[in-house]
Write a structure and sequence with these properties.
Length: 454
């Protein structure tokens, strides 16, 4: 696909890098000569310097031939103007990044009046991701499918973990929960395991199942954590606003520690149900005074990765049960291995993942439409949700009769809103949702998991 990305900042760069690697033809527009130089040196993309609010710039970038344009500058209003202009100049699909909380409930209106196909909000997506982690504190990562009917959660086996030394064939009888280990990350390697696979301490497991069965799983292995009732947030930016509203609606008490006095005053208006503290959360005495050690969870949300990591480590030393750390740069993710800070989130990566799924859905062929895409194991694997249609080669056939490609697994089936852990006798039916875990390349349609399908 021909794709234009307007804005070469963190989000624009991440999306350009991801979609270029997927084989799409990418053009990046940015006003900054330094940004254009950096992107053209690092990525195999076309770069155009200029203002995307100017129709001539869009025309120079080939907007009339673009199958998708993403407006991802730092200013919502510029993205809106760019989106309207691109739509009228012939771009088939237009996506705009709109971040202001005041626009959150106007999405349908904005899409209709401006011709937008999709609105992306990195901060809102980040808040949703963190909210899922806080509502399922036993897991280090949570991916949701089919409106919560199935989840894939990550769990790292501790040194004294009950699962260490157990084969997957033994697991159902020993644990008594209807879950499926769909992937194992061992060191730098991602594996789709078979029944004789033996688990080890340190393995990071991706496990599918319904919420109730996953909670039972964690209880049986002695890793269940009680529900979060109180959360301390470091940083009062947009993510904090979105997240606080979500948590307050769930009855979770929120304390926000923000160093900027003017921002604190605004937060009191934006999230009146929260406790807003004007102070420097990088100072231990401030955290101690505000009761960090008594909190059920701590979330680091500032724009400084170093501060987020250091204070998260301090929270861990205070035995805070659940810690989530926001990271803006890829560099630090690998450095946290072994620190106990397993729950990290990245707004730009979430948007790149969201748009990758959207672009794949636009490119989808027959046999089942893609509903969502989640990356696992730092992008080494993917979990995808497909809607099964009547034309799929897989419909109505027991799974044991199907020959799947290597490194592909059907992790769950959602039928009439209920989750099923499939076995060889299970057959997919039209209208089912199938969750596929794959190491076998970039899937765009369900039937591509079959041998002989491209």
């Amino acid at each position: 696909m021909n794709i234009i990305i307007v804005g070469g900042g963190k989000v624009g760069y991440s999306v350009a890098e991801t979609l270029s690697a997927e084989g799409h033809d990418i053009t990046v527009i940015d006003q900054s000569a330094a940004t254009i130089e950096r992107i053209s040196t690092a990525l195999d993309v076309i770069c155009v310097q200029g203002s995307a609010a100017n129709p001539e710039t869009l025309q120079a970038a080939g907007v009339d031939r673009a199958e998708l344009l993403l407006a991802a500058t730092e200013k919502d209003e510029v993205n809106m103007i760019c989106g309207i202009t691109a739509h009228r100049l012939g771009a088939r699909h237009v996506v705009a990044r709109i971040r202001d909380p005041e626009y959150l409930h106007q999405g349908a209106f904005l899409r209709k009046t401006m011709g937008l196909s999709l609105i992306v909000n990195p901060e809102y997506e980040c808040a949703k991701e963190i909210s899922r982690l806080l509502h399922f504190p036993s897991a280090v990562r949570v991916d949701t499918f089919s409106n919560g009917s199935v989840e894939i959660v990550d769990h790292r086996i501790p040194e004294d973990g009950k699962l260490a030394g157990m084969t997957l064939r033994e697991l159902p009888g020993a644990i008594g929960a209807k879950v499926l280990v769909v992937m194992v990350e061992r060191g730098s390697e991602a594996l789709i395991p078979h029944g004789d696979f033996t688990l080890r301490a340190g393995d990071r497991l991706s496990i599918s199942g319904s919420t109730a069965e996953l909670r039972r799983f964690f209880a049986r292995i002695g890793q269940y954590r009680r529900p979060v009732k109180s959360v301390m947030l470091m940083g009062g930016g947009r993510v904090a606003v979105y997240l606080t509203r979500m948590l307050l609606e769930s009855g979770i008490a929120v304390t926000i520690v923000e160093r900027d006095a003017a921002r604190c005053e605004l937060l009191c208006d934006l999230v009146p149900g929260a406790s807003v503290v004007c102070g420097d959360a990088t100072r231990s005495e401030v955290l101690d005074e505000e009761g960090l050690a008594r909190s059920d969870a701590f979330v680091a949300l500032t724009g400084d990765d170093g501060d987020n990591i250091i204070v998260s480590l301090f929270a861990r030393s205070c035995a805070v049960p659940k810690i989530v750390t926001k990271l803006n740069r890829d560099l630090f993710g690998g450095l946290l291995e072994g620190t106990g800070l397993d729950s990290t989130v990245s707004p730009k990566e979430l948007v790149a993942q969201q748009l990758t799924g959207y672009v794949r859905a636009l490119s989808a062929s027959r046999g089942g439409g893609m509903e969502s895409l989640h990356r696992l194991a730092d992008g080494k694997a993917e979990a995808l949700e497909f809607l099964v249609d009547e034309h799929s080669r897989m419909a109505h056939k027991p799974l044991r009769e199907l020959k799947l490609k290597k490194n592909v697994l059907i992790g769950a089936i959602i039928r009439s809103g209920k989750s099923l852990i499939p076995d060889g006798n299970t057959a997919l039916l039209p209208g089912d949702h199938a969750v596929i875990v794959s190491l076998a390349g970039r899937l765009t349609a369900l039937d591509q998991i079959l041998e002989g399908e491209r």
